[in-house]
Design goal:
Layout lengths: L1 E6 L3 H15 L5 E5 L5 H10 L4 E3 L10 E3 L6 H7 L2 E4 L12 H5 L3 E4 L7 H9 L3 E3 L6 H10 L1 H27 L1
Parallel strand pairs: 1-2, 1-5, 2-4, 3-4, 5-6, 6-7
Helix pairs in contact: 1-6
C-alpha cells in the first residue's frame, strides 16, 4: 500500500504511472489516491479507467479491493497516512507550492514530494534533514522512489519513525509557545 494525497491535475497521472511501475513488481499493490479537491472524483475515476486500472471509490461507500482506492472524501487523510508506509504529498509536482507535511510525518508515513515547495520549503527541509522526507526531481522519478521504499520496508519505517519523532518535537515546541 502507498498513497498519493492532496494531488492536483497532472499529479494523478504521475501517481497512476508510478503505480503501474509498482504493480510490475508488486501485483497486489494498492494505491490510495486522494485528490486535494474531492469534487474532482469523477474526473480522477475517468483517469484511472483510461489507464486500464481497477478502482473502488470511498465516496461510493466502497472498501479497498482494487488496484486503486479513490479516496474522494474529506477528513480522512490521517487514516490514509497511517495505512500507507509511503506517501507522495501533492501540490509539489505542479506549481502549487506544496502542502503541509506535518500530518503525514506525525502519522509515520515516509514522505515523497516534488520540487515545487514554495509554501513549505522550511518544513520539508526540516523533515528531509531528519530523514523523513525525500524531494524527487519530477514526475518520472516518482515510480522509482516509491519502488525503492517498498523494496526496503525498514528504510520506509525508519523514515516514518523519523517523521513521527520530528513532528512530536515540533508539537512540544508549539505547545510551549502557546503556554507562554
Amino acid at each position: 500500500v502507498w498513497a498519493a494525497v492532496s494531488t492536483h491535475p497532472g499529479e494523478e497521472e504521475a501517481a497512476l504511472s508510478a503505480h503501474a511501475a509498482v504493480l510490475g513488481d508488486h501485483p497486489d499493490a494498492v494505491l490510495i489516491l486522494c485528490p486535494r479537491h474531492p469534487e474532482r472524483g469523477g474526473e480522477v475515476a475517468a483517469l484511472i479507467a483510461a489507464r486500464g486500472l481497477t478502482a473502488t471509490r470511498r465516496s461510493a461507500g466502497a472498501a479497498p479491493g482494487a488496484q486503486v482506492y479513490l479516496a474522494d472524501t474529506l477528513g480522512e487523510t490521517g487514516l490514509w497516512f497511517r495505512l500507507a508506509p509511503v506517501t507522495f504529498l501533492g501540490g509539489s509536482l505542479v506549481a502549487r507550492g506544496g502542502h503541509n507535511p506535518w500530518e503525514p510525518a506525525a502519522c509515520g508515513s515516509a514522505i515523497l514530494t516534488g520540487p515545487h515547495l514554495d509554501n513549505v520549503a522550511d518544513d520539508m527541509a526540516t523533515l528531509a534533514a531528519a530523514g523523513a522526507a525525500r524531494v524527487i526531481a519530477d514526475a518520472g522519478a516518482l515510480g522509482p522512489a516509491v519502488l525503492a521504499l517498498l523494496a526496503a520496508p525498514d528504510t520506509a519505517r525508519a523514515a516514518g519513525a523519523a517523521g513521527r519523532a520530528r513532528a512530536a518535537q515540533v508539537r512540544v515546541a508549539l505547545d510551549e509557545a502557546v503556554a507562554l
